[in-house]
Design a protein that fits this description.
Layout lengths: L4 E3 L5 E6 L3 E6 L3 E3 L1 H14 L5 E5 L2 E8 L2 E4 L3 E4 L17 E5 L7 E5 L5 H4 L9 H95 L1
Antiparallel strand pairs: 1-4, 2-3, 2-8, 5-6, 6-7, 9-10
């Protein structure tokens, strides 16, 4: 898709099936597109039909993303068909390594990436188990053993994710506690500085009042001396 692409009337109607349940049909206007204009046109059509997915250009590769819990992940189970009337089909390469990025810190680079794996029966190869014959049962046992091994590995991996997230949570709790303590110390210093300033102003005010009172007493003392003479 780096060099752009052309869409004609035999391949401008696309039907999307995402995760086996979401089915949407869009109509792309025939014509020549650059990678940017094609992505924009495609996203406009996807938004118009509320497809819930977004097209992105990843180094010349067309990918689709979906929002989940405030984070985006790559859609891996997607089927795209061209015009039904012409029998045309559209082959697109979709990334198989879906991931979920979590913001785990205050800075932009504080991310935690979780790799997601399709663990549904179809992906595990156990959606069409045949137990009606001995050969089918033996073949099913192999598929079931493989599925159990895959699920066990994924559970171990997600257990490691959980441990790391708990460690991150503890670090963030300590960071919050230290930050609160530092803020409290800063506020205490500001309060002490304010009290020192108030005490200084009170002393200066009292000294000024005493000097003014003494200055007022001197003329009266001179008048008393004159009267006595």
């Amino acid at each position: 898709m780096t060099n752009g692409l052309s869409i004609d009337n035999s391949s401008n109607i696309w039907e999307f099936t995402v995760d086996g349940s979401l089915k949407k049909t869009i109509n792309i206007n025939a014509g020549s597109y650059t990678s940017t204009t094609f992505i924009n046109a495609l996203n406009n059509e996807l938004k118009a039909v509320s497809a819930g997915i977004t097209a992105v250009n990843d180094n010349g590769m067309l990918k689709f993303e979906r929002e989940m819990n405030g984070s985006s992940y790559t859609v891996t189970n997607i089927n795209i068909y061209g015009n039904k009337n012409s029998g045309a089909s559209l082959n697109l390469q979709v990334d198989s390594g879906a991931s979920l990025n979590l913001q785990v810190g205050a800075n932009s680079g504080d991310n935690f990436e979780i790799s997601l794996t399709d663990a549904r029966t179809g992906a595990l190869g156990i959606n069409n188990i045949d137990l009606s014959t001995r050969q089918g049962a033996e073949s099913s046992l192999v598929n079931i053993d493989h599925a159990l091994k895959t699920v066990s590995q994924e559970r171990s991996r997600f257990g490691a994710y959980q441990n790391r997230l708990e460690h991150i949570q503890n670090d963030l709790s300590n960071y919050e506690s230290n930050l609160t303590s530092a803020e409290s110390r800063i506020r205490d210093v500001d309060m002490a500085k304010g009290m020192m300033g108030l005490t200084k102003n009170n002393i200066l005010s009292q000294a000024a009042e005493a000097m003014l009172a003494q200055a007022n007493q001197e003329p009266q003392a001179i008048l008393q001396l004159l009267k006595s003479n």
